[in-house]
Specification:
5 domains; nine-stranded mixed beta sheet; 22 strands; binds adenosine-5'-diphosphate; binds magnesium ion
Length: 721
Amino acid sequence: MDLISPIESHFRLLGPQKSALRKLGISTVEDLLYHFPVRYGDTAESRNIASLRKGDEAVVYGKISRLKTSKGFRTKIAMADGVVVDDTGSIKCVWFNQPYLAKMIPDEALVRVEGKVSERKKDGELYLSNPKIERVDKLPTAVGDSLFGSDGGIHTLYPVYPESRGITSNWFYHAIQKAFKSGILDALEDPLPPEILERYSLPTLRTALVWMHAPQKDADAHAARKRFAFEEVFFIQLERQRERREWKKNPAFVIEPKPEVIERFVSRFPFPLTSAQSKAISDVLDDFKKGNAMARLLEGDVGSGKTAVAAATAHAAIMTRPRGQDYGSLQVAYMAPTEILAAQHFESFIQYFEHTGISIGLITGSGCRKFPSKVNPRGWTDISRTQLLKWVGNGEIPILIGTHALIQKSVKFKNLAYAIVDEQHRFGTAQRQKLVRKDEIHPHLLSMTATPIPRTLALTIYGDLDITLLDQMPHGRKPIVTEIVLKTKRDEMYEKVRRELRLGRQAYVICPRIDEPDPAKEMAVLAKSVKEEAKRLQDSVFKEYEIGILHSKMKDAEKERVMAEFKKGSIHILVATSVVEVGVNVPNATVILIEGAERFGLSQLHQLRGRVVRSNHQAYCFVYAETQSQKTIDRLKALTTAKNGFELAEFDLKFRGAGELYGKRQWGISDVGMEAIKNIKMVEAARTEAVRIVESDGSLANLPLLRAKLDERKSQRIHFE
Ligand code: ADP
Ligand code: MG
């Protein structure tokens, strides 16, 4: 066996196994080795069936029989059931909506079953509802017996792999053991330099793989995960540090405005800058002087005033002449993720720059605009794309704002000196490169984001950028009133909402789900659904108001119609899922009521309440949790005490774990890698090592294995993009 050979050449696979592997993205032996367990079971944890009591969360081992499928009597839900027997007794297992289970597991198979013991109402019979089920090779006969392998009695841990239809943990365990036995580990070379392994007491690649898939003890599994977590963050850091080094090599325009020019521009703002804004502006201006390209990230909550920072620094750039010229000006590009946002920035920039007489262009997929218009010097006009591009190309339009239409090949600047990217995480590195590669002289780059993430994650995924934090809200803004609502106060809460509605304001009601509860999922029963809740509110709470609904399964046209009506004010209460997080801006909506709040992370709740801080009216956020344990309430209270979204992201990391971080999927970090994110020391160590290596050996000439590994990661990424 070798790493790159396809799995199918070594294992006989059934149809469902093949498709399961495909879904998991596992095609080679190497992929198999890097398919890590999510946790480890312990045979010592198992229970005798006879000892089970209602309400227990239990693991039992036994033989399963009488597996069959049926349809629920009233509900018509597909069900499967069977009976598990051990030496002490038997218990029924029932699965809802998983009829395939009955087909996958043969009668009389030995299994491990894990689930909650329930009691049937009519006769008190105990059963396991929706248990996890897994085939095993043999049953543990006593505590300490080994389930797998022939080293009887030494270890009781066994790996549990991510749940997937069609393939079991047992299959993975045996496939990986077979690979190990083929001697594949001897062929593996460790890309991590030995001195790094030593410095942080990390196991070698071979040891780590064995410990990951077949640990003798918890500490082994833990050490293996630590190694792979470190490795992943280290690789990302190396990539980012190398990108950073490449980027910083680029010559850029030196921009050194006179301080009084900046001061005069800023003094016309209708508000005094916060000190965080002033500091952000001076961070950027310092970078501007250096002659090589800036790469900076501006992180600040929604409403912290990032646009003003963009405007002041853009002004510095366009007040500067191109090198060797005593006419014309440098140019600025400002890219936003959506047309609505691009148009919004265009409007704000018109306000900021109106008095300067500077032209501003807007380019999006649906058309182009220019400010000022010839006929109306205070307004903008639609112009043709060709005309706009001509003026951008000859430098007559110094500021161009747009969506990704900005990075099309046909858009050519004369002297692009400064690129601002709003919500950078939506733009991949590749897109960023497109914006800048067109000119020999690289523009300075400012990325702006309001997505709250913990510092460790920022250091990792934005490792190529210098970071400035806008951790202060503008003066005089009325802070949102956030209330954690207790069960007994639901009616009181509705009265408070009604009071705002009477003042002509509007409200959001956020529910965790779209549809009726699925009776098969016990957990779901409690969560409110958009459709039901909208009906209930309309029928019995807010009869006098117009209620609309919004969720992700609606057609786009329908969504737009609802949003337009909400904007217009003909819908007073919008009941929605968390889709309203993005891009919705209705200043008159000042109340948000969040149902089932315990299901959301704190930073997501924070993003949600950001929807209603859009005006000078006092805004309210009511946070209602279904399960009001002290722990839940304490966690939610952080919403009333934390200073900003970033602090809340740290709370989420601490209380819910890296796996639950808001927006997790878009970061492209594996579950194991995310474990490093919990550990600032590990992230800093990975960064330190990456910086050290890149500084002394940027091309990795002395570390060919590491270099090969990075190339491989890169080619995989291109594959996916
Ligand atoms: P962000 O992009 O960070 O979410 P914006 O730049 O859109 O925030 O600013 C939000 C609002 O706050 C805008 O209306 C802006 O004019 C205003 N604003 C920005 N800075 C200040 C400040 N220092 N004092 C008062 N208002 C400000
Ligand atoms: Mg903004």
